[in-house]
């Protein structure tokens, strides 16, 4: 037999898409399991034409879900970033968008009890990548995760049912500290010395003043992605920052998926690729994100959480650029990204020195469920 099959679902969560598996359906052997992931997405080809990826970082993803034995936790899951034209299965970081799809999957697969007469169900989920607890409110219809609704989120052109998600004590999941390098820190590369903020909230991020690399909000991502010198500078800064934060001993050991990188700008007026004019009064901060060596079409959910949190932490680069408003201890941060505006809930601890929670509203839907065929 030339191929074997395994039960798999494809979900969109936020602005990401990935393959979803029950842990019990996968082999225990890690190498064989990883081959299933890479063949399913097709990590071997840059176009991913022979699998279900589409050649982008936000569609080359896998989630593995199981019931949890932890007290007070309904389900737990692990996220994997899959390589594009490279044999990579990376569980170093997580995906802030696919989190909501994990909640939908748990409902659709019967991993959590629901009442067919209820309009929503509250779920508690543990993410093994960052060791954090997620609380979600999943809307229901006929005992399944509701898809249709009137909530329109940036990056998705059709509205859907709103899923509410909050991440508790989100700091330090990968490095042990929300600010492993302090408020700011210098990073030196062959191109010069750069002042960065390294913030570890949900996923660790390196934040840099965009003007330090000559970038504004006006450039299209396609233009920036062709700037090889710019991308080289960003990658060297990212790798040096990771080593200084204790995530790796050498540049070669730095994971491709984390830390991620974002260029920060003050509120300003700009135009999206679809022609929408974003007025500077509509946003509190503007940013462009780099993931897996490419400028992100929108902005990763994990990055939205991290940057919103950093915008409240005194002295960080995002905090320096973000619009200040009353009630700064607890706030909704409006982040301007290439395709629109995302609103993120943030609350600090009583001391104001760390992050108590971050929250975001997203939509999700199951696209297909069936047998995924894997070449032997």
CATH superfamily of the largest domain: Diaminopimelate Epimerase, Chain A, domain 1
Query: What are the low-pLDDT stretches, counting only 5+ consecutive residues below 50?
Result: none
CATH topology of the largest domain: Diaminopimelate Epimerase, Chain A, domain 1
Total individual domains: 2
Into which percentage range does the β-strand content fall? 35-45%
The number of helical runs is 6
Distance from first to last alpha carbon: 8 Å
**Structural class by helix and strand composition:** alpha+beta
Radius of gyration: 20 Å
Largest sheet: 19 strands, mixed
Total beta-strand segments? 21
* Outline: globular
Mean pLDDT across every amino acid position: 95
Order of helices and strands: EEHEEEHEEEEEEEHHEEEEEHHEEEE
* CATH class categorisation of the largest domain: Alpha Beta
Helix content: 10-25%
């Amino acid at each position: 037999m030339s191929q074997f099959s395994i039960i798999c679902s494809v979900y969109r969560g936020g602005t990401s898409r990935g393959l979803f598996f029950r842990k019990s359906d996968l082999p225990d052997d890690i190498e064989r399991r990883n081959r299933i992931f890479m063949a399913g997405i097709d990590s071997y080809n840059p176009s991913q034409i022979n699998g279900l990826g589409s050649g982008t970082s936000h569609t080359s993803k896998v989630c593995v879900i199981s019931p949890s034995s932890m007290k007070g936790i309904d389900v737990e899951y692990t996220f994997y970033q899959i390589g594009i034209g490279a044999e990579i299965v990376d569980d170093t970081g997580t995906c802030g968008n696919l989190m909501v799809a994990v909640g939908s999957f748990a409902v659709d697969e019967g991993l959590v009890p629901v009442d067919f007469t209820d309009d929503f169900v509250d779920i508690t989920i543990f993410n093994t990548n960052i060791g954090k607890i997620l609380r979600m409110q999943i809307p229901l219809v006929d005992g399944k995760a509701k898809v249709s609704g009137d909530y329109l989120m940036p990056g998705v052109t059709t509205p859907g049912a709103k899923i509410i998600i909050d991440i508790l004590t989100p700091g330090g999941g990968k490095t042990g500290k929300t600010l492993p390098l302090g408020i700011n820190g210098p990073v030196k590369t062959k191109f010069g010395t750069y002042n960065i903020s390294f913030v570890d909230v949900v996923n660790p991020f390196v934040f840099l003043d965009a003007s330090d690399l000559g970038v504004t909000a006006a450039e299209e991502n396609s233009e920036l992605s062709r700037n090889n010198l710019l991308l080289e500078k960003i990658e060297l800064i990212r790798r040096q920052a990771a080593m200084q934060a204790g995530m790796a001993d050498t540049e070669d050991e730095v994971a491709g998926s984390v830390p991620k990188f974002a260029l920060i700008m003050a509120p300003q007026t700009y135009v999206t690729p679809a022609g929408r004019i974003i007025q500077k009064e509509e946003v509190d901060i503007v940013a462009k994100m780099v993931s897996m060596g490419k400028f992100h079409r929108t902005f990763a959910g994990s990055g939205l959480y991290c940057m919103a949190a950093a915008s409240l932490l005194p002295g960080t680069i995002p905090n320096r650029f973000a619009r200040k408003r009353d009630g700064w201890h607890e706030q909704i941060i409006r982040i301007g990204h290439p395709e629109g505006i995302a609103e993120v809930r943030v609350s600090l601890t009583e001391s104001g020195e760390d992050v108590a929670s971050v929250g975001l509203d997203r939509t999700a839907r199951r696209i297909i469920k069936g047998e995924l065929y894997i070449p032997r």
